[in-house]
Amino acid sequence: EKVKPSGKDRWMALCPAHNDRNPSLSVTALPDKILVSCQSGCHINAVLAALKIEMSDLFFDSRKGKASAPQGPKEIVATYDYLDENGNLLHQTVRFEPKEFRQRRPGKDGNWIWDLKGIKPVIYQLPRVKEAIDKGETICLPEGEKDADNMVSHLGLVATTSPMGAGKWRQGYAQMLRGAKEVVVIADNDPPGQRHAQAIAASLLAVQVPTKLIEMPSADIKDISDWISAGLTADQLKEIIGGLPPYEPPPAPADTSDLPVIITTGRFLKDKTKDTIAAV
Asked: Per-residue pLDDT tens for 232-265?
């Protein structure tokens, strides 16, 4: 808004990342890129998010002589707050449509900083998790905030997850679950999701948290939200959990490094007895 020329190939405008009244956003067009800077100090990531563009959109494609095609406007469709034990907002996962997830943290004057630098991420719904630990309640741990929210709202269970999805689990998250009566890890129905769930379960066992692991019942159900949509009830899930054995990591592959390597001449077995014996 209030875009005004301020020189050759340069403009000033109201910065969309803060409550700007006097144009403080500088935009400069260079031969190979566009420079964007908020003179009031907003982080570039906050400005780009407010403009609904990516960093790559500011650079020109030298092979085609034009800017890279924008990905199109992205709309925020959900936000998931990550709170400390006292209920203070530490960071937030933001879901965009077309589907994309980004992390941000509170900045000054109500602005957002689009990274997690300088903070220690926590698990989702940490205050409720700590309450469940104190009360001896079972805690469910699916992959993703939407699944956790669906377990709470549709099944009435305690549920948490970790930020940033599969493959991003940290051992520090397991420490936040120490003392839990039981944690039930729920695997998504794909190889990354299954590996992620097994890594979490092993991480929890390492800090002596009683752990169980649930996999999806059929190929057409990809996650717990699908299962709920298919008619899963809280009583059914509790019965399934009750019948599960404690999680045990899969056995490690056998170590064959000390076994002899037998090399023969390639003749039929009946013709290479001497060669084989000699090799052994």
From this structure: 999 999 999 999 999 998 887 767 667 776 665 5
Contact by Cβ (8 Å): 87, 127: yes
Q: In whole angstroms, give the CA distance from residue 174 to residue 35.
A: 43
Query: Contacts by 243-249 with C-beta closer than 8 Å and gap 24+?
Result: 244/184, 244/212, 244/213, 244/214, 245/212, 246/210, 246/211, 246/212, 247/185, 247/201, 247/205, 247/211, 247/212, 247/213, 249/198, 249/201, 249/202, 249/205
Per-residue pLDDT tens over the stretch 108-157? 878 899 999 999 999 999 999 999 999 999 999 999 999 999 999 999 99
CB 36 within 8 A of CB 25: yes
What does the alpha-carbon distance between residue 121 and residue 172 come to, in Å, rounded to a whole number? 9
Q: Which domains are delineated in the chain?
A: 4-67 (no CATH), 123-252 (3.40.1360.10)
